[in-house]
Design a protein that fits this description.
The protein has about 190 residues and is mainly α. It has helices spanning about 10-50, 70-90, 95-100, 105-140, 150-180. α1 packs antiparallel against α5 (about 150-180), α2 packs parallel to α5 (about 150-180) and α4 packs antiparallel against α5 (about 150-180).
């Protein structure tokens, strides 16, 4: 007789987990690309500032990138929210293992379930409030000072990551429930 996996639709949970992990991985890679791009913008702008003061005619074309701070701000907002879902899926958030390690895998899964429930509630609150901020910034047509870029664009790209974070957190609740009902945390 084949043993039945324990939990709430464990096979479906694993399939859903693979899809969410795929999404979170690509979002994290996009966030990494964003960080590389804003690092390049910052370096080029700093070098341009330095070369702008050099009294050599060939360097007259150099200068800082206009609006570099605004680009870095929006890029960082996207990057931060891009990494949160991947971190959650990979169990990358900080835990105090010294206290929970001796408790056993099922108890640890129960503690993970409680933590994931709390984190899902926090992620949902953040996403809702970020969405409200986006609506507010968009309704006032607020723009950045130098580039005149709509401020809500930064909110919109961050909101994508925030909602994927909610999705990933909700999934980890399901995963932790199945681990608690089964044999404990799996790698």
């Amino acid at each position: 007789m084949v043993s039945q996996a324990k939990g709430l639709a464990p096979r479906l949970e694993r399939r859903v987990g693979h899809v969410i992990e795929f999404i979170t991985r690509w979002l994290a890679l996009a966030g990494g690309a964003s960080l590389v791009a804003i690092t390049a913008v910052t370096c080029i702008s700093v070098i341009g500032r330095e070369l702008a003061g050099v009294p050599i005619p060939a360097f007259e074309v150099f200068g800082p990138i206009q609006g570099d701070f605004e680009l870095v701000e929006a890029g960082c907002a996207f990057a931060i929210f891009s990494f949160l879902p991947w971190c959650q899926m990979r169990r990358g958030h900080v835990t105090v293992d010294i206290f929970v390690q001796p408790l056993g895998p099922r108890v640890n899964a129960g503690l993970a379930l409680a933590g994931n429930l709390l984190l899902t509630a926090c992620a949902l609150l953040i996403a809702v409030k970020l969405g409200e901020g986006l609506v507010d910034k968009r309704s006032y047509s607020e723009t950045t000072f130098i580039l005149q870029m709509p401020v809500w664009w930064g909110y919109a790209v961050a909101l994508v990551g925030a909602w994927v974070f909610v999705l990933a957190s909700a999934y980890t609740v399901w995963r932790s429930l199945n681990e608690m009902l089964g044999d404990g945390e799996r790698e």
